[in-house]
Amino acid sequence: MRKPNLSSTKHTKVLAPAKDLATLEAELAEKENSLEGNLEDTVLCLSDYLSAVDMVIKQTFNHRVWVKAEIRNLSSKGGHYYFELAEKDDDGKVIASCRGNLWRFKAVRVLAKFERATGMPLDRDLTVLLKVSAGFHAQYGFSLTIEDIDPSYTLGDLARQYAEMVDRLAGEGLLHLNQQLPTPFDIEHVLVIAPEKAAGLGDFQADANRLASTGACHFHYHNATFQGNHAPAEIRQAIISAQQQFQDIYQRLPDLLVIIRGGGAVGDLAYLNDYELAALVAEQPIPVWVGIGHERDKVILDEVAHTSFDTPSKVIAAISAHLAQLVAQTLQYQMQIKQAAQRQLNTAMQQTSRQLSQIQSQTIGQLTALQKDSAYAWRSIQQSANRQVKQAARQASELHTQTQSSVYQQLSLASTYSKSHQKTMMQSAQQQLIQAQRNSEHLRDIVLLHRPSRVLKQGYSILTDEKDKRILTSSNQLYPEQTIHIALKDGKAKAQIIDIKMNKKPTESTEVSTYS
């Protein structure tokens, strides 16, 4: 579908109604007043009343008018088309809605004319100009009978929406955001978003597979639907999931994101004019190349992408050309480096030869002098070593005598300290044993004082749950009609909770009824 031109869109045709609204309201009020007196005390069945409503609508709205509405839903059965029409305010809130019917004997002509003019099929979410007449049925209610559809109005509305989308993207700084990214130096990994089994995808893969077989580039394919109202959401999800999957595997961003369609009806391009999809593409951190498969028409993705191509084949051709240019440039750099290295190698060889001759002549003289110095140094080292060995032997003997004397003294002190410490430890252990025995006897007395049988004899009781397994100690564990067990000093009783009173004080009051 070629991008609509607002300036060339013809003016909308709107037929003037046979009577203005004020006249119709006056006539209805007059009829209502005349009928009100006659029917005030009359009881009608529903079918008669709705038949009267049908008659009033047919007599009052027996002419056809042009109505602007949005298609909220569209279905067909037996060649007939059924519409759900609506009008929305500036906030997108529905302020009017009704059903519409396009009957089979007119549907073929009307829809064919619409598709020829717009290049796209009639579908939901389109704003259309309909030629309608009012109708009412006692069983099915009010509806509009569609006589004709003006395609020029829809073209103008699509062009308006496209222009508003471009202005919004420009105002938010998104229109040229992705285009400001530099072209990657090396294209190694490419994410490809395309409809499954599309003809354009096959053409792209034919060249991409040959390129991938060389190891120069790797392509990662993800599928999405490119037509229908759900196409923008699927493409957005495919872009997000593809990026996340690549990030999880390679721990980095890909070099390029490619969105291609290829083939398909021209009208399907309208589904790609979606603001959310365009904003997501514009905000990508990597360059986005698109090849939607058109030559003259543009979609909003062409406006925000880093680079736009007519077909998927041209996208893969551009990638191949970029890599070929990179290889050629690399080979050129390699040749230049090789030539510079050869020149430097020749110069280094000449300098090395001269330096080698100088080093040889200098080395001979230095070796002679070093031999003399080495002999003198060897004799000096031997004499010094002999003196140091004798001195070390004397020092070792003295150190041995001192060490023996020190060890004997430390052993004597350690023995004395050990005996004293042993005596202290024995006294401390005896005191701790006596204290532990006293503590044990005290704890035994406490345990005996608090044993259950003694507590029960003092007038206390023990509450347990219905299964007599868990002891209940708080009113929070109780609830009305709960069965509990009460243990007394001389037996047990079964009780049922009637009421529970929670007190702020530590003491809580609980009323129970008992039965054995």
Shape: flat
Tell me the CATH architecture of the domain at 173-326.
Answer: 3-Layer(aba) Sandwich
**Radius of gyration based on Cα positions:** 50 Å
- Ranges where pLDDT stays below 50 over 5 or more residues in a row are 1-18, 507-516
CATH level 3 topology of the domain at 173-326: Rossmann fold
Describe this structure in words.
This protein has helices at about 20-40, 45-60, 105-120, 150-170, 200-215, 230-250, 275-280, 300-305, 310-450, 450-455, and strands spanning about 65-75, 80-90, 95-100, 125-135, 140-150, 190-195, 220-225, 255-260, 290, 305-310, 460-465, 485-490, 490-500, 510-515. The chain is of the alpha/beta class. Among the domains are: about 45-155, Nucleic acid-binding proteins (OB fold (Dihydrolipoamide Acetyltransferase, E2P)); about 175-325, Rossmann fold; about 455-495, no CATH class. The strands form 3 sheets. The protein has a 5-stranded mixed β-barrel. Strands 7-6-8-9-10 form a 5-stranded parallel sheet, sandwiched between helices. Helix 3 (about 105-120) packs across helix 4 and helix 5 (about 200-215) packs across helix 9. The longest helix is centred in the C-terminal third of the chain and has 138 residues, at about 310-450. The radius of gyration is 50 Å and the shape is flat. Mean pLDDT is about 80; it is low at about 1-20 and about 505-515.
